[in-house]
Amino acid sequence: MSTPAWIGSYRIERLLGAGSFATVWLGHDPVLDSRVAIKVLAENWSHDLRVRERFRDEARLLRRLDHPRLVRVHAVGELPDGRPYAVLALADGGSLRDRLAAGPLPVPVALALLDEIAAGVAVLHRQRVVHRDLTPGNVLFASTAEGERVVIADLGLAKALAAASGLTARAGTPGYMAPEQDDPLAVVDTHSDVFGLGRLGLRLLGGPDQRAAGVPGPVAAVLRRATAPRPRDRYPDADAFRAALRRATRRPGDPGPAGAPPPGTRSADNGPRPDRVGRAVHRDRADHAGRADRLVAGPSGFRRGRPAGSAWSGPLPWRSSRWG
């Protein structure tokens, strides 16, 4: 695959990744002196009008939702050969798939990440959109002034709920897609994304094997319900899943109602929540084990750090150093 010199007004620096449907390039805007990710439809799909329209639909959907928990679209265009491309905000921290490849994560960090992923999917569900392909490769990390934020990417298979029920082509990634996604006549709705969240939770927590140190039993129960074979046995949507996860990690006697973050702080998308989890966790590091609730109520911005003996190289909520 040859590297194009330019795509539109963006100078291409290098390849970021390639998949079955698209290729993503690192581009530079010489006018604004900023980097972007440019997603281009793969050549082998360039003559399929349905795939081309799906590609454009993804860009339109992300543009319409325009939320910090979702990858943002700056512009769209078309190559001389007719292939569409989308100019996206650069998620410069890589993907969850990359970080999991480095080794297992500390349980509190895994729970904090799962909470943030659920918050991003909840943005879609409140707009009556189902993602249908929640995988570690579609969970990205972007630098912000506050540290680092989890963002949801690749809405190429996303559907409005009004159009996602019945006669829907098989779509999703094996290992993460709900059973009903393998049936073109089945109803695919927010329950299907809850299954994907549950599978992500299992991947983040290594099973989870309840014998593994630090994995609370109630968390394992939440993930079992989320991955139930029958959709009606799961949580109805990402908000319900997230609330259950928070209840499962909250200790008796903690302030505030079950599933609610501590008062006096705010979130960009759903009311009060801590803006600096690292401070709260730092105060309690002596009895840190098993207190994942302090992290599950974590911020949209994580911090980077590495505890001794851990393969985790991504952001840790209790570190105070800025992501570089």
Classify the secondary structure makeup into a structural class: alpha+beta
Which CATH class of the largest domain is shown? Mainly Alpha
> Which fold name fills CATH's third level, the topology of the largest domain?
Transferase(Phosphotransferase), domain 1
| H/I helix tally | 8
Average pLDDT reading = 78
What is the CATH superfamily classification of the largest domain? Transferase(Phosphotransferase) domain 1
Q: Could you tell me the radius of gyration in angstroms?
A: 20 Å
| Low-confidence region ranges | 164-168, 256-268, 270-324
Number of strands: 11
Structure commentary:
- By secondary structure, the protein is an alpha+beta fold.
- The chain folds into two domains: 6-89, 2-Layer Sandwich (Phosphorylase Kinase, domain 1), CATH 3.30.200.20; 96-302, Orthogonal Bundle (Transferase(Phosphotransferase), domain 1), CATH 1.10.510.10.
- 28% of the residues lie in helices and 18% in strands.
- It has eight helices and eleven strands.
- It has helices at 49-65, 96-101, 107-126, 190-204, 217-226, 238-248, 277-283, 293-296; strands at 6-7, 10-18, 22-29, 34-41, 73-78, 84-89, 129-130, 139-144, 147-152, 159-160, 301-302.
- The strands form three sheets. Strands 1-2-3-4-6-5 form a six-stranded antiparallel β-sheet, with helices on one face.
- Helix 3 (107-126) packs antiparallel against helix 4 (190-204).
- The longest helix has 20 residues, at 107-126.
- The chain is globular, with a radius of gyration of 20 Å.
- It starts with 5 loop residues before the first strand and ends in a 22-residue tail after the last strand.
- Mean pLDDT is 78; it is low at 164-168, 256-268 and 270-324.
